Amino acid sequence: MAGSFATVLFGAGLIGASLLAAAIVPLATAYSIAEGIGAPASLNLDSKHFQFFYAAFIGLTVAAASVVSLPGLPLIPLIYTSQVVNAVLLPLHVIALVLLANDPVLIGNAKSGRITTIAAWLSIVLILACVVALIFSWLIS
Question: What rounded mean pLDDT belongs to the chain?
Answer without folding.
Answer: 87
